[in-house]
Amino acid sequence: MVRKLEVKNLVINSLLEVEKNNCLKISLIFKNILMKFLNEKRRNGLCQSKYLNRSLAEYKNIA
């Protein structure tokens, strides 16, 4: 019985670690995409806060 609980806890901890890593990867991917988006807008001279606020809201809805 104790051994089953240990194995179950190991499985749960492994799954939690995988989930945490996936969340971190998604967060990094989103940050990279966001930086590319902002850099593109800056290059195009469209970095006015009014424009960016609207565009970022639209961008986040798509993502």
The number of domains is 1
Number of strands: 0
Radius of gyration: 20 Å
Helix percent band: over 70%
Order of helices and strands: HH
Tell me the major beta sheet. none
Count helical runs: 2
> Which regions have little confidence, pLDDT < 50, spanning 5+ residues?
none
Shape: rod-shaped
* Gap between N and C termini: 45 Å
Strand content: under 5%
Can you give a write-up of this model?
It is rod-shaped and about 65 Å long. The protein has helices at residues 2-43, 49-62. The protein has one domain. With 63 residues, it is mainly α. The mean pLDDT is 77.
Looking at this protein, list some descriptive labels:
2 helices; 63 residues; mainly alpha
Care to give the gist of this entry?
The chain has 63 residues and is an all-alpha fold.
What secondary-structure arrangement, pairings included, does this model have?
Elements: H1 2-43, H2 49-62
